[in-house]
Amino acid sequence: MPIDVLDAEPEPRAIDLHAHQPTSEFLEEAGGEMMADAARKFGAELETKEYDEMVAEYRAAGVGRVVLLGWDAETNTGNPPVTNDYVAAVRDAFPDFFVGFASVDPHKPDCVDEAERAIADLDLSGFKFQQIAQGFDPSDPAHEELWKTIEDLGAPVVFHGGNSTLGAGAPGGRGLRVKYGNPLLIDDVAADHPDMRICIAHPAFPWEKVQLAICQQKGNVYMDLSGWLPRYIDEQVLRYADTLLQDEVMFGTDYPMIEPDTWLEDFAAHTDYSEDVQRKLLWENAEAFLEL
Ligand SMILES: [Zn+2]
Prior knowledge:
- There is one protein chain.
- The protein has 292 residues and is α/β, with parallel strands linked by helices.
- The protein has one domain: Metal-dependent hydrolases (TIM Barrel, Alpha-Beta Barrel).
- It has helices at residues 4-7, 24-30, 32-42, 51-60, 74-77, 84-93, 111-120, 131-134, 144-153, 184-192, 208-217, 235-242, 260-270, 275-290; strands at residues 14-19, 63-69, 98-102, 126-129, 157-160, 198-201, 221-224, 249-250.
- The protein has an 8-stranded parallel beta sheet with strand order 1-2-3-4-5-6-7-8, with helices on both faces.
- The longest helix has 16 residues, at 275-290.
- The chain is globular, with a radius of gyration of 17 Å.
- It starts with a helix and ends with a helix.
- 48% of the residues are buried.
- Residues 18, 20, 254 line the site of zinc ion.
């Protein structure tokens, strides 16, 4: 089923706020066993791909820009990072397509310096945190200098929201703690740093209602719909995206776990938003969040 607002644009216009590398750097090295657990549990065959193929796939689906996320959970998982230099190099190969987001490991003593370097030297556009994989509580005062630095840099931040599929089904979930995905921990950061633009990624199962409350109450907090096909997203989230939160909710896939044409087809089949709301959700809200 086509999406009229995408078809009406002369150039691919939608923005995917949440994509990972379809290469061994993410799927095998950084992901390690916890990623293999997720693939087994959800039956996803994750074949590695080249970036040319990824970009062509997106453009064919009507998506013109993609936020590519770094990954550094080295202290907590022992796996090597997808480095900020790597993300910047991929961005430089497709500068009109990728928006590069850095990752810093909050447990590393040089995380504040690395955050500054990612913006000043690598010209990355924002930050991504995955609190469950990285094993930290964002509301812990130990991270205050990092948040203050990022707020002063004026860079947007994507925090993971909700449970994670990483480690799914493994004994002890490979030691990963679901509690760090509770969006209420991000509410503290958002309250103390009103100039930090925050996106709580994914419908934050099982705390979607908490997430909606925070997005509604705090003008600096957005959310995206990545990681879930629309058919599985909580009804209340879909209703808020159409009404109260129509200026805060953004499109995202969690590529390569979900591909853009698959998500967009499911969106067309399971929602009935006006063209106005579709444009906001598919690109206008992301343009505001990213200050494009
Ligand atoms: Zn993700």
